[in-house]
Write a structure and sequence with these properties.
The complex is a heterotrimer of chains A (492), B (290) and C (303).
Chain A: H1 3-10, E1 32-33, E2 35-37, E3 40-42, E4 49-53, E5 60-65, H2 69-88, H3 91-107, H4 109-120, H5 124-143, H6 149-152, E6 158-160, E7 163-167, H7 173-186, E8 190-194, H8 201-212, E9 220-222, H9 227-235, E10 241-245, H10 248-257, E11 265-268, E12 274-277, H11 283-295, E13 307-311, H12 315-326, H13 347-362, E14 366-369, E15 385-388, H14 395-398, E16 405-411, H15 414-422, E17 429-433, H16 437-446, E18 451-454, E19 473-474, H17 479-483, E20 487-489
Parallel strand pairs in A: 1-5, 7-8, 7-10, 8-9, 10-11, 12-13, 12-17, 13-16, 15-16, 17-18
Antiparallel strand pairs in A: 2-3, 4-5, 6-20, 11-19, 14-15
Helix pairs in contact in A: 2-9, 3-5, 4-5, 5-7, 11-12
Chain B: E1 9-10, E2 26-30, E3 36-41, H1 45-64, H2 67-83, H3 85-92, H4 100-120, H5 124-128, E4 130-131, E5 138-146, E6 149-153, H6 159-171, E7 176-181, H7 186-197, E8 206-210, H8 213-222, E9 226-232, H9 236-247, E10 252-256, H10 266-269, H11 272-275, E11 279-287
Parallel strand pairs in B: 1-3, 6-7, 6-9, 7-8, 9-10
Antiparallel strand pairs in B: 2-3, 4-5, 5-11
Chain C: H1 7-17, H2 24-37, E1 38-41, H3 49-60, E2 76-79, H4 84-90, E3 97-101, H5 112-124, E4 129-133, H6 136-140, H7 144-158, E5 162-166, H8 175-189, E6 200-203, H9 215-232, E7 237-239, H10 247-260, E8 273-275, H11 278-291
Parallel strand pairs in C: 1-2, 1-8, 2-3, 3-4, 4-5, 5-6, 6-7
The chains are: A alpha/beta (492), B alpha/beta (290), C alpha/beta (303).
Chain lengths: 492, 290, 303
């Protein structure tokens, strides 16, 4: 046997797979983190803390202060004291702080991306290529508005609200902080921000950057903790605006809690967004759209396209192609650069996903999953999957799962597609795939949703308003329309 | 012997028809001298429900109409109102504190308000919508759209101008309206219904109930088909319970804080951003490439 | 059936393959795999028989020094018909195939009967594989039957030699056209059935037109081939060619193949890379992974 023959035998593409490609950057993680109040980090007054872990390993990352009502009060007072000088600062000065912040974020983007992945479980590919670039872009975009507000609201003199309470979720921790902070600060408000309990670290590292750029103390205060902390923020008398992103259930509770006060709210809540595929769609790309729609960020996305409506004539090949494509997704170590689907954010969320999937099977829907190889032994994992044979009345077709689980249904006519798509209490986003322009405009107009992605899905941009209708909430974030939530007309 | 006058019973206007309250209840409208001027229907929870059902049907025709047609219909309403101005003035002056001159001014302002809002029908889209410069090969734009059904809780005063302003605000973007006029505004509400009824507004697009906000607030705000509640002249307690009820369905509640004279301020009340309370912004993305 | 393409998502998907990170064993294997798929090509007017002979030696022994694991030979040497006899001789006794461009390459602008004759002559001279061009003008003008006819007649002239059909994607204008054209030539070439896996390839470009083998255009061909496989079970080959000079680009292609049509296609009988200088870079990278030093261009055999 010659050398050449051996070589030919050695090169076998069938067995070729990607080797581990771990991200090597390691951010500095402190053992404990305090609350960020009035420009300094400080422990909770009762010295309570909680532990934040890496959902991919179960390992403890740090201890974080648990803010009680007294701490929230301090933060609110700091924000209130800072409100007047901050609002009186010229728009250009305020804008320059935000520009500075955008630059600082770009400079430490990789560390923040790794930290986001470690604390939340999302693949480094996403935190690096999606979350962090968008975070920086959000501050950059809104920085430029700060000195142009009088042209943003033509004919209407406006002022900031004062102190904004902002409560954010765990699925895009730093990005949601950016969505909330950037417009609030650009418009001259001060903020008390409450990150999610399972993902407090990137917000606290952001606080370090706020110190570094010399943002005046009290303009941004960050109080970490659980639902109690959020409730204390919402209940505080100094509050003049409340913005919340999270579950519909908590959104309703916050509405009730603030019912007696004339405080403007922005609520960005749950969804069960329809994703409609017509037979005349660009099929190969529609498959990618569906993948991006439901399996981006483990399906921990409020606007996930979790109800797939496929025109009946192509249902079978579409489902087969989707199954093939799903098999390509790589589930595992979120810090591996080739991982497509990372860890489920928490044990609670994993239990919820499991429960709903079990219910789906019990109700008679057919589960399709793929052999993705062994999942890591530790941490919280759920492989991507989808259901067929789903009836609109099934739990998996109605309830937000917030996991990598898709429900596939079919339709025959555009009318039926619209009817099925709108038959939900939610109304956050919707997707349409068709090669026919007139059909797109007709469908887009009739879909009850705040965002309609046509021949694409899950696109985000600081200049593009995002938000829902019906039980998915109200108010917009991003773009000119997002600014409106952070000013009040001085004419009442 | 003088001629015996025919007294009109004020009825509800639901789905283009004029039913009495299903409850059979009425209330009395007094003349300035304390005598009975007439009786109006006292709307019940079920009337509110029926009105929302009618509005559901009205919404599809009203929101489906072209912006130009909605503008022409609202302008027609202004024409019809102007021609019945005297009737409105007499109805308003049943309230002893309202002098005829003030009443005439309010009627004029109400007609003008309709004219202003008629003009907004095909313009607010350009003022409030926009194209967004996203990073990437996408055409991205934000358009205002009607929300569906808007419940209006009109103020006791200014009874006509308040009701006209709020109904027109809600109707401009193509929403269907279920408006509640309190007892003090009942007579002008009936007259307004008669004006609108001959202005080519599709059946159910606007529905007018007379009665007590206290009673109708909960059934309207909790109705799953109602997307937005627009109220004025509400007490703190009413605002609180309205928001509590609306929380069940994450419905938007807007309590207008305007005082008597504010309603005359076109710059405030007829400004395009007032329409934002009763419309939704929808953002569309589409790839841009061959 | 018409398969519309959305250009934006197509590009995004194609770019996603370039984000895969290949380390250690994955990279070592991929570099050798890529070598085994190279159609080592020279299509210059100045090509001499001596050049062709040198090319054959490089094709059989791409690596100038022994490394472990060994470097396989390339898949084929691709030349103009005139040099086919020289290459035939130079590759004698090896597994490397003789490939010849044909059909008035690169423009295809001559009468069909001449193109058919040229193909028959190349096969008679010993070509195992024929790389034909299609009449892009006819396609763009909507004369699709002309394309069907020329594909089928050239295929007949191949007498069993494998056929690679060059679309010249850079001249087709839109992704929609590329996909439609790929579907069309596949349909024509498979119309009479009786084909074995890999006996027909679709190929992006001649290398004489830019853009050539872009990631999106290769993805379109892979998707067309996949659709054919899904409906018939027959595996057709895909060959990107033109502008692929760096190992990185070749590795991106392998990732795309793996994740689009699957690892079954990761063999020279179903996937080729048409290139001339790519082999030099692949060998340099192989030397780097094996001895930990960057090789100079003169370290890797110059032809």
């Amino acid at each position: 046997m010659t050398d050449q023959d051996t070589a030919v035998a050695d090169v076998n593409g069938l067995d070729w797979d990607y080797s581990p490609a771990p991200e090597r950057t390691r951010p500095e993680i402190a053992s404990t983190y305090g609350l960020f109040i009035d420009g300094v980090f400080q422990p909770a007054q009762d010295e309570r803390t909680f532990v934040t872990t890496n959902p991919a390993t179960g390992a403890r990352l740090a201890r974080v202060a648990q803010a009680g009502a007294a701490d929230v009060d301090l933060a609110m007072q700091a924000a209130k004291n800072a409100a007047r000088p901050w609002a009186r600062l010229s728009g250009r000065q305020r804008g320059k702080y935000l520009f500075r912040l955008a630059r600082r974020i770009q400079e430490c983007a990789r560390e923040l991306a790794v930290l986001e992945t470690m604390d939340g479980g999302k693949p480094i590919k996403e935190s690096r290529d999606v979350d962090l670039p968008l975070v920086a872009a959000h501050f950059f975009y809104h920085a430029g508005w700060a000195d142009k507000l009088e042209w943003a609201f033509q004919g209407r003199p406006v002022k900031p609200h004062g102190v904004c309470g902002q409560i954010i979720p765990w699925n895009f921790p730093l990005l949601m902080a950016a969505w909330k902070l950037a417009p609030a600060l650009a418009c001259g408000n001060t903020v008390v921000l409450k990150p999610a309990e399972t993902t407090p670290l990137t917000a606290l590292h952001l606080a370090q950057l706020l110190q570094e750029i010399d943002l005046p103390p009290g303009v941004v205060n960050i109080v970490t903790g659980d639902g109690e902390t959020g409730a204390a923020v919402a209940a505080h008398p100094a509050l003049s605006k409340l913005a919340f992103t999270g579950s519909t259930e908590v959104g309703k509770a916050l509405m009730r809690q603030t019912a007696s006060r004339d405080i403007p709210l922005t609520l960005e809540l749950g969804g069960k967004s329809p994703h409609i595929i017509f037979a005349d769609a660009a099929m190969e790309q529609a498959i990618e759209g569906v993948v991006n729609g439901i399996w981006f960020n483990q399906g921990h996305v409020c606007c996930a396209g979790s109800r797939l409506l496929v025109e009946e004539s192509i249902l079978e090949p579409f489902v087969a192609a989707l199954r093939d494509r799903m098999a390509q997704l790589r589930v595992g170590d979120p810090l591996d650069k080739n991982t497509d689907i990372g860890a489920i954010n928490s044990r609670e969320q994993l239990e919820r996903i499991r429960t709903l999937v079990r219910l789906g099977q019990e109700e008679g829907a057919i589960l399709h999953d793929v052999q993705t190889g062994p999942l890591p032994g530790k941490g919280w994992w759920f492989p991507p999957c989808f259901f067929t044979g789903v009836q609109p009345s099934h739990v998996v077709a109605r309830e937000e799962i917030f996991g990598p689980v898709l429900s596939v249904m079919s339709f025959r006519t555009p009318e039926e597609a619209i009817r099925r798509a709108n038959s939900t209490p939610y109304g956050l986003a919707a997707g349409i795939w068709t090669d026919k322009g007139s059909k797109i405009f007709d469908m887009a107009q009739r879909l009850e949703a705040g965002v309609v992605w046509c021949n694409t899905y899950n696109q985000f941009d600081p200049a593009s308003p995002f938000g829902g209708v019906k039980e998915s909430g109200f108010g917009r974030e991003g773009g000119l329309h997002g600014l409106r939530a952070y000013v009040r007309g001085v004419d009442r | 012997m003088s001629r015996l006058e025919v007294v009109k019973t004020g009825k509800l206007w639901i789905g283009g028809s004029w039913p009495r309250s299903e409850s059979g209840r009425t209330f009395t409208v007094e003349a300035p001298d304390g005598s009975v001027h007439s009786r109006c229907a006292l709307a019940s929870r079920k009337d509110a429900r029926d009105a929302v059902e009618a509005a559901r049907a009205g919404w599809s025709s009203w929101s489906g109409a072209t912006a130009l047609l909605r503008a022409q219909i609202l302008y027609r309403a202004a024409e019809m109102m102007e021609s019945r101005a005297d009737e409105f003035v007499s109805a308003l002056t049943l309230e002893p504190s309202l002098k005829p001159a003030s009443a005439r001014k309010e009627v004029g302002a109400s007609v003008d308000r309709l004219v202003t809002f008629a003009g907004w029908c095909d313009k607010y889209q350009q003022v409030l919508g926009c194209q967004n410069p996203v990073t990437g090969p996408y055409h991205n734009f934000t358009i205002p759209q009607s929300v569906g059904i808007v419940a209006v809780l009109a103020p006791p005063t200014p009874s006509l101008l308040g009701l006209v302003t709020m109904v027109a605000t809600a109707a401009v973007p193509g929403n269907a309206v279920v408006a509640v006029a309190p007892r003090q505004a009942a007579l002008v509400a009936v007259l307004l219904g008669e004006v609108l009824a001959v202005s080519d507004i599709p059946d159910g697009a606007i529905n007018l109930l007379t009665g007590d906000v206290r009673e109708l607030l909960e059934p309207l705000a909790s109705h799953r088909e109602v997307q937005v509640v627009l109220g004025a002249g509400l007490s703190k307690g009413q605002r609180t319970s309205l928001r509590e009820v609306a929380a069940q369905g994450v419905r938007r509640v807007h309590a207008l804080p305007w005082k008597q004279d504010d309603w005359l301020e076109d710059h405030l009340v007829a400004a395009p951003w007032q329409l934002e309370r009763v419309l939704d912004f929808k953002t569309l993305w589409h790839p841009c490439a061959v | 059936m018409h398969h519309p393409v959305d250009a934006v998502m197509l590009s995004q998907r194609a770019a996603s393959f370039t984000r895969r990170s290949l380390k250690a064993d994955a990279k070592r294997t991929a570099l050798r795999l890529a070598v085994s798929m190279v159609d080592l090509t020279t299509l210059e007017g100045a090509d001499s028989p001596e050049c062709a002979r040198a090319l054959c030696r490089r094709a059989i022994h791409p690596c100038p020094e022994p490394v472990t694991p060994a470097v396989p030979p390339v898949a084929a040497v691709c030349v103009y018909p005139r040099l086919v006899p020289v290459v035939r001789e130079g590759l004698l006794g090896s597994a490397v195939k003789v490939a010849s461009v044909s059909t008035a390459f690169p423009s295809g602008q001559s009468p069909l009967e001449l193109r058919v004759q040229e193909t028959a002559a190349a096969v008679a001279a010993g070509a195992d594989e024929i790389d034909m061009v299609i009449s892009r003008g006819a396609f763009l003008a909507g004369r699709l039957d002309d394309i069907r006819t020329e594909v089928m007649e050239v295929q007949d002239a191949c007498q069993g030699a494998h056929l690679k059909i060059i679309l010249e994607t850079g001249e087709l204008g839109t992704p929609d056209n590329i996909r439609r054209c790929a579907d069309l030539v596949i349909d024509a070439a498979t119309e009479r059935g009786e084909l074995r896996d890999g006996s027909v390839f679709v190929k992006t470009s001649t290398g004489k037109v830019s853009p050539a083998a872009t990631m999106p255009s290769v993805l379109l061909l892979l998707e067309s081939v996949r659709a054919h496989f899904r409906s018939t079970g027959l595996r057709l080959g895909v060959k990107p060619a033109g502008g692929i000079r760096k190992s990185k680009a070749a590795l991106h292609l392998l990732v795309m193949v793996r994740e689009t049509v699957g690892p079954d296609w990761l063999q020279p009988s179903l996937f080729r890379i048409g290139a001339s200088s790519l082999l030099d870079d692949l060998v340099r990278q192989i030397l780097w992974t094996s001895r930990g030093q960057y090789a100079a261009m003169h370290d890797v055999g110059v032809t």
